[in-house]
Design goal:
This protein has 6 helices and 14 strands. The chain is an alpha+beta fold and 416 residues long. The chain folds into 2 domains: 178 residues, no CATH class; 185 residues, Glucose Permease (Domain IIA) (Distorted Sandwich). Strands 1, 4, 5, 6, 7, 8, 9, 10, 11 and 14 form a 10-stranded antiparallel β-sheet that branches. The chain has a two-stranded antiparallel ribbon with strand order 2-3. Helix 1 packs antiparallel against helix 2 and helix 2 packs antiparallel against helix 4.
């Protein structure tokens, strides 16, 4: 009938009452609240570590705490899946009960209609001309009115229960959609845990657990990063682009890419009323110490995805997504841990496209956003001097095609 099941069902005894199900749901809520407190504690530890000087010990500790936090995220998601299953079971019972009430109301209406039909077939004149006394006649007429009143009452009750049934079904559909989303989130979190473990193993393999080896690795990566940034900027400075501000949308047209916003580095430099890419940073950086969902900032299409670390580790965006929006702007999301979209895919404002991370050229996990006039940016391949013999593929734009991401986002109020 109504339920198309995409999930692994949780089976319950029919003897379980609605109250027992509600008690289980309440317990899941309590468990979720405790786990979310643990997550906040891990976030606090990561914030403290983020203020310390870079060292191998700090990096390993960050990876360990991030893994614990991710495992707790998984536990929370699993609890929410359990709760959704319980909620769906409860709604199924509720729907079954309402369908029985509707069936009973329909039967009652049919019974009363039969009575009305019998009384009307006899007719008032025929009743009066019969040998009945007037008391019996008036009783028959009164009975006809009573039956009609009962029919009207049953129809009213039927409408009310049918309305409640539709509402319950709507809630049930919502609960099932949430369950599907939670199962997808659980899969994402499990993938990121594996990636986190691989990152730690790779770091230990590269440094052989030696602080001096780590510092040398860090120094080499920073040198590569500096060379790459210069060669990219020189390349982009040679590209020709005629900037036309009239083709750009008004400020504030984009939504936030994260649930919680804290800017750690601004775009470019202040030149007149706005910030421009005359010098400085090619985008805006947002704090994201552990993998967090990243959302499309408007309706658009995925123009490209990639991972510069597969060609030249630690010098560029790492895992990146380029989205062309329907308003004349395009954005690159950089340093991601997980990409959830594919090239050519259409996306809606607020749709989840990936997770933040620490891939590419970073001193710590965060989300980097570069924003451009759409007509000026494209995915190109460039030979890399920082990694001789390697060809990098990533979004590239002329210097004057870059715009300030914060100008096009909602008003920013810094928070802790």
């Amino acid at each position: 009938m109504f339920f198309a099941v995409f999930i692994v069902p949780v089976f319950f005894s029919h003897a379980e009452s609605m109250q027992e199900l509600q008690n289980k749901i309440n317990q899941k809520d309590s468990d979720i609240a405790k786990l979310e407190d643990e997550i906040e504690a891990y976030q606090g530890q990561l914030s403290t570590l983020g203020q310390q000087k870079g060292s191998l010990g700090r990096s390993i500790q960050e990876l360990d705490i991030t893994k614990k936090k991710l495992q707790t995220d998984i536990a929370v998601t699993q609890k929410k899946i359990d709760k959704s299953n319980l909620t769906i079971q409860s709604l199924s019972f509720d729907i079954g009960g309402k369908e029985k009430i509707i069936a009973n109301q329909k039967n009652s209406i049919l019974l009363e209609l039969r009575k009305t039909d019998e009384l009307e077939r006899i007719g008032i004149i025929e009743t009066i001309l019969s040998e009945k006394d007037f008391t019996a006649i008036w009783n028959d007429i009164d009975n006809m009115g009573t039956v009609r009143e009962k029919i009207i009452k049953h129809i009213g009750e039927l409408k009310q229960v049918k309305g409640e049934l539709e509402d319950t079904r709507t809630v049930s559909i919502k609960a099932k959609n949430e369950l599907i989303a939670l199962k997808s989130k659980l899969s994402d979190q499990q993938k990121i845990v594996v990636q986190n473990t691989n990152e730690k193993n790779k770091l230990l393999q590269q440094t052989k657990n030696s602080e001096s080896a780590y510092q040398k690795l860090l120094k080499d990566q920073l040198a590569k990063k500096a060379v790459f940034e210069k060669e990219l900027r020189d390349y982009e400075a040679q590209l020709q682009f005629i900037s036309d501000p009239s083709k750009l949308p008004k400020g504030g047209v984009l939504s936030w890419p994260l649930d919680k916003i804290f800017v750690t580095q601004e775009f470019g430099a202040k030149t007149g009323p706005h910030r421009t890419y005359a010098s400085g940073h090619s985008g805006t950086d947002f704090r994201a110490r552990t993998p967090l969902p990243v959302y499309s900032m408007a309706d658009g299409v995925i123009k490209g995805v990639g991972d510069t670390d597969t060609i030249c580790p630690g010098v560029s965006f790492g895992k990146w997504i380029l989205i062309e929006y329907n308003n004349g702007l395009s954005s690159t999301f950089g340093h991601l841990s997980l990409i959830k979209v594919r090239e050519g895919q259409k996306v809606k404002r607020g749709e989840e496209v990936g997770y933040t991370g620490g891939t590419g050229r970073v001193t710590g996990p965060h989300l980097h956003i570069s924003l451009y006039a759409s007509s000026g940016v494209s995915v190109l391949t460039v030979p890399s001097k920082s990694c001789p013999g390697k060809i990098l593929k990533q979004p590239i734009a002329p210097i004057n095609a870059y715009v300030d991401p914060m100008y096009f986002m909602p008003p920013y109020i810094p928070s802790a």
